[in-house]
Protein backbone atom coordinates (compact mmCIF):
# COMPACT_ATOMS: atom_id res chain seq x y z
CA UNK A 1 0.00 0.00 0.00
CA UNK A 2 1.03 3.60 -0.64
CA UNK A 3 1.77 5.41 2.62
CA UNK A 4 0.17 8.86 2.32
CA UNK A 5 -0.10 12.17 4.16
CA UNK A 6 -3.13 14.18 3.04
CA UNK A 7 -3.31 18.00 3.15
CA UNK A 8 -6.76 19.60 2.89
CA UNK A 9 -9.30 21.83 4.61
CA UNK A 10 -12.08 20.74 6.93
CA UNK A 11 -15.61 21.52 5.81
CA UNK A 12 -14.56 22.02 2.17
CA UNK A 13 -16.16 19.63 -0.30
CA UNK A 14 -13.15 19.60 -2.66
CA UNK A 15 -10.97 18.29 0.18
CA UNK A 16 -13.57 15.95 1.60
CA UNK A 17 -14.37 14.19 -1.65
CA UNK A 18 -10.73 13.69 -2.63
CA UNK A 19 -9.85 12.35 0.81
CA UNK A 20 -12.83 9.96 0.78
CA UNK A 21 -11.66 8.58 -2.57
CA UNK A 22 -8.10 8.21 -1.30
CA UNK A 23 -9.42 6.15 1.60
CA UNK A 24 -11.01 3.77 -0.93
CA UNK A 25 -7.81 3.50 -2.99
CA UNK A 26 -4.59 1.58 -2.41
CA UNK A 27 -3.58 4.01 0.32
CA UNK A 28 -2.34 3.72 3.88
CA UNK A 29 -3.21 7.10 5.40
CA UNK A 30 -0.41 8.05 7.79
CA UNK A 31 -1.77 11.48 8.76
CA UNK A 32 -4.16 14.26 7.81
CA UNK A 33 -3.12 17.93 7.79
CA UNK A 34 -5.80 20.63 8.05
CA UNK A 35 -5.42 24.21 6.81
CA UNK A 36 -4.43 26.87 9.37
CA UNK A 37 -7.35 28.30 11.37
CA UNK A 38 -9.08 31.20 9.57
CA UNK A 39 -7.30 30.60 6.27
CA UNK A 40 -10.06 28.90 4.27
CA UNK A 41 -12.04 31.07 1.82
CA UNK A 42 -14.04 29.05 -0.71
CA UNK A 43 -16.41 30.22 -3.45
CA UNK A 44 -18.10 26.81 -3.45
CA UNK A 45 -21.04 27.15 -1.05
CA UNK A 46 -21.43 23.40 -0.64
CA UNK A 47 -19.84 21.89 2.43
CA UNK A 48 -18.43 18.41 2.75
CA UNK A 49 -20.86 15.84 4.15
CA UNK A 50 -17.96 14.40 6.10
CA UNK A 51 -15.08 16.67 6.91
CA UNK A 52 -11.44 15.56 6.84
CA UNK A 53 -11.04 16.09 10.59
CA UNK A 54 -13.98 13.78 11.29
CA UNK A 55 -12.62 11.23 8.82
CA UNK A 56 -9.19 11.26 10.46
CA UNK A 57 -10.78 10.53 13.85
CA UNK A 58 -12.71 7.60 12.39
CA UNK A 59 -9.53 6.22 10.87
CA UNK A 60 -7.58 6.74 14.07
CA UNK A 61 -4.76 8.62 12.31
CA UNK A 62 -2.98 11.79 13.52
CA UNK A 63 -4.56 15.13 12.62
CA UNK A 64 -2.25 18.14 12.38
CA UNK A 65 -3.32 21.77 12.13
CA UNK A 66 -0.09 23.79 12.12
CA UNK A 67 -0.26 27.59 12.05
CA UNK A 68 2.36 27.32 9.28
CA UNK A 69 3.41 24.27 7.22
CA UNK A 70 6.97 25.58 7.52
CA UNK A 71 7.08 24.99 11.27
CA UNK A 72 10.27 22.93 11.92
CA UNK A 73 8.65 20.70 14.54
CA UNK A 74 5.76 19.93 12.19
CA UNK A 75 8.13 19.10 9.33
CA UNK A 76 10.05 16.79 11.64
CA UNK A 77 6.85 14.94 12.59
CA UNK A 78 5.86 14.45 8.93
CA UNK A 79 9.36 13.25 8.12
CA UNK A 80 9.10 10.68 10.90
CA UNK A 81 5.99 9.21 9.24
CA UNK A 82 8.08 8.24 6.17
CA UNK A 83 5.32 8.74 3.56
CA UNK A 84 5.49 7.61 -0.04
CA UNK A 85 3.19 10.46 -1.10
CA UNK A 86 2.03 13.85 0.05
CA UNK A 87 -1.34 14.62 -1.57
CA UNK A 88 -2.96 18.04 -1.34
CA UNK A 89 -6.52 19.00 -2.31
CA UNK A 90 -7.88 22.33 -1.14
CA UNK A 91 -5.07 23.03 1.34
CA UNK A 92 -4.53 26.76 1.93
CA UNK A 93 -0.80 27.29 2.25
CA UNK A 94 2.43 26.92 0.31
CA UNK A 95 4.44 23.89 1.38
CA UNK A 96 8.17 24.59 1.81
CA UNK A 97 10.80 22.71 -0.16
CA UNK A 98 11.99 20.78 2.90
CA UNK A 99 8.47 19.39 3.39
CA UNK A 100 7.94 18.62 -0.31
CA UNK A 101 11.14 16.57 -0.42
CA UNK A 102 10.07 14.20 2.38
CA UNK A 103 7.99 11.63 0.41
CA UNK A 104 9.78 8.78 -1.33
CA UNK A 105 7.73 9.19 -4.52
CA UNK A 106 6.14 12.63 -4.91
CA UNK A 107 4.27 15.61 -3.44
CA UNK A 108 1.24 16.36 -5.61
CA UNK A 109 -1.76 18.70 -5.63
CA UNK A 110 -5.22 18.58 -7.20
CA UNK A 111 -6.12 21.96 -8.74
CA UNK A 112 -9.51 22.73 -10.32
CA UNK A 113 -8.37 24.30 -13.59
CA UNK A 114 -6.40 23.53 -16.72
CA UNK A 115 -3.00 24.77 -15.59
CA UNK A 116 -1.31 27.12 -16.22
CA UNK A 117 -4.63 28.96 -16.59
CA UNK A 118 -6.19 30.12 -13.30
CA UNK A 119 -3.37 29.38 -10.89
CA UNK A 120 -4.10 30.40 -7.33
CA UNK A 121 -7.40 31.04 -5.57
CA UNK A 122 -10.96 30.27 -6.70
CA UNK A 123 -10.16 28.76 -10.14
CA UNK A 124 -13.73 27.60 -10.83
CA UNK A 125 -15.16 31.03 -10.03
CA UNK A 126 -12.66 32.74 -12.35
CA UNK A 127 -13.29 30.28 -15.18
CA UNK A 128 -16.95 31.33 -15.07
CA UNK A 129 -16.11 35.02 -14.59
CA UNK A 130 -14.04 35.10 -17.78
CA UNK A 131 -16.49 33.03 -19.78
CA UNK A 132 -14.23 30.02 -20.32
CA UNK A 133 -15.91 27.32 -22.38
CA UNK A 134 -13.65 24.60 -20.97
CA UNK A 135 -11.89 23.97 -17.69
CA UNK A 136 -11.03 20.84 -15.72
CA UNK A 137 -8.80 19.27 -13.09
CA UNK A 138 -5.01 19.17 -13.05
CA UNK A 139 -2.91 16.96 -10.80
CA UNK A 140 0.56 18.45 -10.57
CA UNK A 141 3.79 18.05 -8.65
CA UNK A 142 4.22 20.74 -6.04
CA UNK A 143 7.18 23.08 -5.96
CA UNK A 144 7.81 26.34 -4.11
CA UNK A 145 5.59 28.28 -6.53
CA UNK A 146 1.80 28.48 -6.58
CA UNK A 147 0.39 25.75 -8.88
CA UNK A 148 3.49 25.91 -11.11
CA UNK A 149 4.86 22.38 -10.79
CA UNK A 150 5.12 19.70 -13.47
CA UNK A 151 1.88 18.06 -14.63
CA UNK A 152 0.93 14.53 -13.60
CA UNK A 153 -2.55 14.21 -15.20
CA UNK A 154 -5.18 16.49 -16.73
CA UNK A 155 -8.90 15.92 -17.27
CA UNK A 156 -10.93 18.44 -19.28
CA UNK A 157 -14.50 19.48 -18.39
CA UNK A 158 -16.87 21.50 -20.58
CA UNK A 159 -18.44 24.61 -19.06
CA UNK A 160 -22.20 24.67 -19.64
CA UNK A 161 -24.19 27.90 -20.23
CA UNK A 162 -26.19 27.59 -16.99
CA UNK A 163 -23.25 26.58 -14.81
CA UNK A 164 -22.70 28.23 -11.46
CA UNK A 165 -19.78 27.58 -9.12
CA UNK A 166 -21.35 24.57 -7.29
CA UNK A 167 -22.51 22.78 -10.46
CA UNK A 168 -19.22 23.24 -12.28
CA UNK A 169 -17.21 22.28 -9.19
CA UNK A 170 -19.28 19.10 -8.89
CA UNK A 171 -18.53 18.00 -12.46
CA UNK A 172 -14.85 18.81 -12.03
CA UNK A 173 -14.71 16.71 -8.86
CA UNK A 174 -16.52 13.86 -10.62
CA UNK A 175 -13.86 14.01 -13.36
CA UNK A 176 -11.11 14.03 -10.73
CA UNK A 177 -12.08 10.87 -8.87
CA UNK A 178 -10.65 8.42 -11.46
CA UNK A 179 -7.38 10.39 -11.32
CA UNK A 180 -7.12 9.57 -7.62
CA UNK A 181 -7.31 5.86 -8.44
CA UNK A 182 -4.82 6.26 -11.27
CA UNK A 183 -2.36 8.11 -9.02
CA UNK A 184 -2.27 5.30 -6.48
CA UNK A 185 -1.97 2.61 -9.15
CA UNK A 186 0.95 4.41 -10.77
CA UNK A 187 2.62 5.12 -7.44
CA UNK A 188 2.32 1.47 -6.39
CA UNK A 189 4.06 0.58 -9.67
CA UNK A 190 6.89 2.98 -8.87
CA UNK A 191 6.09 5.81 -11.26
CA UNK A 192 4.40 9.20 -11.03
CA UNK A 193 4.30 10.92 -14.45
CA UNK A 194 5.92 14.32 -14.85
CA UNK A 195 5.49 16.79 -17.72
CA UNK A 196 6.58 20.47 -17.56
CA UNK A 197 3.79 23.02 -17.63
CA UNK A 198 3.43 25.11 -20.75
CA UNK A 199 4.60 28.72 -20.48
CA UNK A 200 1.63 29.82 -22.63
CA UNK A 201 -1.76 30.83 -21.26
CA UNK A 202 -0.62 31.49 -17.70
CA UNK A 203 -2.99 33.43 -15.45
CA UNK A 204 -3.05 33.97 -11.69
CA UNK A 205 -6.17 34.50 -9.60
CA UNK A 206 -6.63 37.09 -6.88
CA UNK A 207 -9.69 37.95 -4.80
CA UNK A 208 -12.33 40.21 -6.33
CA UNK A 209 -11.64 43.91 -5.81
CA UNK A 210 -13.94 46.94 -5.96
CA UNK A 211 -12.69 47.57 -9.49
CA UNK A 212 -13.81 44.09 -10.59
CA UNK A 213 -17.32 44.73 -9.24
CA UNK A 214 -17.96 47.71 -11.51
CA UNK A 215 -19.83 46.63 -14.65
CA UNK A 216 -17.56 46.71 -17.70
CA UNK A 217 -19.74 47.57 -20.68
CA UNK A 218 -17.03 46.43 -23.11
CA UNK A 219 -17.88 42.90 -21.96
CA UNK A 220 -20.83 41.09 -23.65
CA UNK A 221 -24.15 41.31 -21.81
CA UNK A 222 -24.39 37.52 -21.47
CA UNK A 223 -21.11 37.44 -19.55
CA UNK A 224 -22.08 40.38 -17.34
CA UNK A 225 -25.33 38.59 -16.54
CA UNK A 226 -23.36 35.50 -15.47
CA UNK A 227 -20.98 37.60 -13.37
CA UNK A 228 -23.90 39.12 -11.49
CA UNK A 229 -25.30 35.66 -10.78
CA UNK A 230 -22.07 33.95 -9.64
CA UNK A 231 -20.67 36.70 -7.44
CA UNK A 232 -21.42 36.78 -3.72
CA UNK A 233 -20.72 40.52 -3.86
CA UNK A 234 -23.03 42.80 -5.83
CA UNK A 235 -21.85 44.28 -9.10
CA UNK A 236 -22.74 47.91 -9.75
CA UNK A 237 -22.89 50.73 -12.27
CA UNK A 238 -22.59 54.45 -11.63
CA UNK A 239 -25.02 57.21 -12.51
CA UNK A 240 -24.88 60.84 -11.41
CA UNK A 241 -21.91 60.00 -9.18
CA UNK A 242 -23.79 57.30 -7.25
CA UNK A 243 -23.36 53.54 -7.16
CA UNK A 244 -26.36 51.39 -8.07
CA UNK A 245 -25.94 47.71 -7.18
CA UNK A 246 -27.59 45.21 -9.53
CA UNK A 247 -30.08 42.94 -7.78
CA UNK A 248 -31.83 41.36 -10.76
CA UNK A 249 -30.94 41.38 -14.44
CA UNK A 250 -30.99 39.46 -17.71
CA UNK A 251 -29.15 39.64 -21.03
CA UNK A 252 -30.85 40.27 -24.36
CA UNK A 253 -29.89 40.92 -27.96
CA UNK A 254 -29.67 44.56 -28.96
CA UNK A 255 -29.58 45.68 -32.58
CA UNK A 256 -29.64 49.51 -32.45
CA UNK A 257 -26.51 50.59 -34.39
CA UNK A 258 -26.56 53.94 -32.61
CA UNK A 259 -26.17 52.35 -29.21
CA UNK A 260 -22.71 52.53 -27.64
CA UNK A 261 -21.33 50.54 -24.70
CA UNK A 262 -22.35 52.34 -21.54
CA UNK A 263 -25.50 53.98 -22.95
CA UNK A 264 -28.51 53.69 -20.64
CA UNK A 265 -32.15 53.52 -21.74
CA UNK A 266 -35.18 53.33 -19.49
CA UNK A 267 -38.00 51.12 -20.76
CA UNK A 268 -40.96 50.90 -18.38
CA UNK A 269 -39.64 49.57 -15.09
CA UNK A 270 -36.44 48.20 -16.65
CA UNK A 271 -33.15 49.84 -17.50
CA UNK A 272 -31.13 48.70 -20.52
CA UNK A 273 -27.38 49.10 -20.30
CA UNK A 274 -25.78 48.77 -23.72
CA UNK A 275 -22.69 46.53 -23.89
CA UNK A 276 -20.27 45.43 -26.60
CA UNK A 277 -22.70 42.61 -27.45
CA UNK A 278 -26.35 43.01 -26.54
CA UNK A 279 -27.79 44.83 -23.56
CA UNK A 280 -28.08 44.06 -19.88
CA UNK A 281 -31.65 44.58 -18.71
CA UNK A 282 -31.67 45.73 -15.10
CA UNK A 283 -34.92 44.92 -13.28
CA UNK A 284 -33.98 45.79 -9.69
CA UNK A 285 -31.25 47.87 -8.06
CA UNK A 286 -30.06 48.59 -4.54
CA UNK A 287 -29.15 52.13 -3.50
CA UNK A 288 -27.51 51.21 -0.21
CA UNK A 289 -30.76 51.36 1.74
CA UNK A 290 -33.54 49.65 -0.22
CA UNK A 291 -34.31 47.65 -3.38
CA UNK A 292 -35.80 49.79 -6.15
CA UNK A 293 -37.16 49.48 -9.65
CA UNK A 294 -34.82 51.28 -12.08
CA UNK A 295 -37.64 53.76 -12.88
CA UNK A 296 -37.14 55.14 -9.34
CA UNK A 297 -33.67 56.40 -10.23
CA UNK A 298 -34.18 60.12 -10.42
CA UNK A 299 -33.25 62.19 -13.48
CA UNK A 300 -32.32 59.18 -15.59
Task: Please write out the topology.
Elements: E1 2-8, H1 13-24, E2 27-34, H2 52-59, E3 63-64, H3 72-81, E4 85-89, H4 97-100, E5 106-111, E6 119-120, H5 123-129, E7 134-141, E8 151-158, H6 165-188, E9 204-205, H7 210-213, H8 221-230, E10 236-239, E11 242-252, E12 264-267, E13 270-274, E14 279-286, E15 291-292
Parallel strand pairs: 1-2, 1-4, 2-3, 4-5, 6-9
Antiparallel strand pairs: 5-7, 7-8, 10-11, 11-14, 12-13, 13-14, 14-15
Helix pairs in contact: 1-6
Can you give a write-up of this model?
The protein is α/β, with parallel strands linked by helices. It has two domains: 2-204, Rossmann fold; 210-296, Methionyl-tRNA Fmet Formyltransferase, Chain A, domain 2, CATH 3.10.25. Helix content is 26%, strand content 27%. The strands form three sheets. A seven-stranded mixed sheet has the order 3-2-1-4-5-7-8, with helices on both faces. Strand 1 (2-8), helix 1 and strand 2 (27-34) form a beta-alpha-beta unit. Helix 1 (13-24) packs parallel to helix 6 (165-188). The longest helix is centred in the middle third of the chain and has 24 residues, at 165-188. The chain starts with a strand and ends in an 8-residue tail after the last strand. The mean pLDDT is 92.
